[in-house]
């Protein structure tokens, strides 16, 4: 409330008790009104919409993870068979028929391998079950002779039959039959999905590339086609080099197993070759477990020989065979390959372990084509060796210093002798005219 004083100036008086003071306008120095800004509701709605879209996308991605992984596997499989399909299509065969023939060949080989392996395992299981009493007797006799015990096979069998863990194992196995059946059916459906997508990618590869390139400007189209070509070369090279090494490994292990008289030597050789090459780094040791087990049923010392051969062959393959076969196809460092397999396993499991190496090789080749490189300086720290004379030991340097000291001493002595000889000769030369005179 405002009033005028005696001098005519405007003064402000306090409002009466029990009344609310009026709001001060911005012109009077007060705060603006408490109205909500016009942009705030729109911002809130936009933020809620973004959160909803993110949640929906995250839910859809998790629901479709299995399908996306299958498509990724199918894409790499199509890249692997792309050279064979293109070679057949270049000779007049329709691309769809070429892709069908390639897949038919892979299916026949895989089915034959699984059939032979299954029959081998079934025969070995039957043989082990029939010979279990003899194995148990030999083990009991060894324990009795070594530890001075008096075990009997009847007591061991009764203890096994009346044990709680055996009863629980049988119950769990009976209840898990349905789960195993569901997993088998799911695996077959997954293989069918991968096969169909791989066939479409391989048969319609040019159409897919045209579709992708139609969405990009000409400069980007060249980059996409270059990246596609690098991926085909690296993936196909990885598959074919691994197939060749699997053939060599299978033949080598077959010769050993056949020489030792191990049953099912051909199938075991194929098993070792396939598993050892398509499970990187540790595949050889995993593949050697089955031949070792079967060799142990024949003779325990045969299992030891198989283990020694597996270890020796792994070293031969790592340091001699693999660098020569993969130098022009998948030339990546073993440490990088091992790290990529670990990273792929952590991200996608067994699928990531299979596609990690060709993916990293493709990325490395693509970056190598566009990353600018310079000439490396001629420095010993870069090339891994010292300069000439830099690698001499303490004894060698001491000998060299001693030799230089001796050469210096000998030179000084010779110089003194030459000086003395020169003075004497001068006197003689100088004396001869005087004496002549």
UniProtKB/TrEMBL annotation:
Compositionally biased tracts (Polar residues): 1-12
Cell compartments where the protein resides: Cell membrane
Keyword Transmembrane helix tagged: yes
TM segment ranges: 39-61, 67-85, 97-122, 180-202, 244-262, 300-316, 336-363
Record region (Disordered): 1-32, 404-437
Bias (Low complexity): 404-414
Predominant location category: membrane
Pfam families xref list: AI-2E_transport
Keywords: Cell membrane, Membrane, Transmembrane, Transmembrane helix, Transport
Topology relative to the membrane: Multi-pass membrane protein
Similarity section: Belongs to the autoinducer-2 exporter (AI-2E) (TC 2.A.86) family.
Matching PANTHER family: PERMEASE PERM-RELATED, TRANSMEMBRANE PROTEIN
Name of protein: AI-2E family transporter
Organism: Streptomyces actuosus
């Amino acid at each position: 409330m405002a009033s005028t004083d005696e001098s005519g100036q405007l003064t402000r008086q306090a409002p009466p008790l029990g009344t609310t003071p009026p709001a001060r306008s911005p012109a009077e120095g007060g705060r603006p009104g408490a109205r909500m800004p016009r942009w705030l509701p729109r911002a809130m709605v936009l933020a809620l919409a973004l959160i909803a879209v993110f949640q929906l996308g995250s839910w859809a991605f998790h629901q479709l993870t299995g399908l996306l992984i299958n498509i990724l596997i199918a894409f790499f499989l199509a890249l692997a068979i792309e050279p064979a399909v293109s070679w057949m299509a270049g000779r007049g065969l329709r691309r769809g028929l070429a892709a069908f023939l390639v897949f038919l060949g892979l299916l026949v080989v895989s089915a034959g391998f699984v059939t032979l392996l299954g029959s081998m395992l079934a025969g070995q299981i039957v043989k082990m079950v029939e010979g279990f009493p003899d194995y148990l007797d030999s083990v009991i006799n060894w324990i009795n002779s070594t530890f001075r015990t008096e075990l009997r096979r009847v007591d061991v069998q009764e203890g096994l039959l009346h044990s709680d863990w055996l009863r629980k194992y049988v119950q769990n196995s009976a209840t898990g039959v349905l789960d195993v059946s569901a997993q088998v059916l799911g695996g077959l459906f997954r293989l069918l999905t991968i096969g169909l997508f791989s066939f479409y990618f391989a048969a319609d590869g040019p159409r897919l590339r045209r579709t992708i390139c139609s969405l990009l400007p000409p400069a980007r189209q060249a980059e996409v086609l270059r990246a596609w070509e690098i991926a085909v070369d690296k993936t196909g090279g990885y598959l074919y080099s691994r197939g060749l090494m699997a053939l060599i490994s299978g033949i080598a292990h077959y010769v050993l197993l056949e020489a030792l008289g191990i049953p099912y030597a051909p199938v075991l050789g194929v098993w070792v070759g396939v598993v050892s090459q398509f499970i990187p780094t540790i595949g050889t040791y995993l593949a050697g477990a089955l031949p070792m087990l079967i060799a142990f049923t024949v003779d325990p010392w045969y299992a030891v020989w198989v283990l020694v051969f597996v270890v020796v062959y792994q070293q031969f393959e790592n340091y001699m065979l693999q660098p020569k076969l993969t130098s022009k196809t998948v030339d990546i460092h073993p440490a990088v390959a091992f790290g990529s397999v670990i990273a792929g396993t952590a991200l996608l499991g067994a699928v990531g372990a299979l596609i990690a190496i060709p993916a990293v090789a493709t990325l490395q080749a693509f970056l190598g084509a566009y990353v600018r490189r310079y000439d490396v300086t001629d420095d010993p720290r870069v090339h891994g060796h010292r300069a000439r004379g830099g690698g001499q030991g303490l004894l060698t340097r001491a000998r060299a210093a001693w030799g230089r000291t001796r050469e210096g001493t000998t030179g000084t002595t010779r110089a003194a002798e030459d000086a003395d000889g020169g003075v004497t000769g001068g006197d003689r030369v100088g004396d001869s005219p005087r004496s002549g005179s």
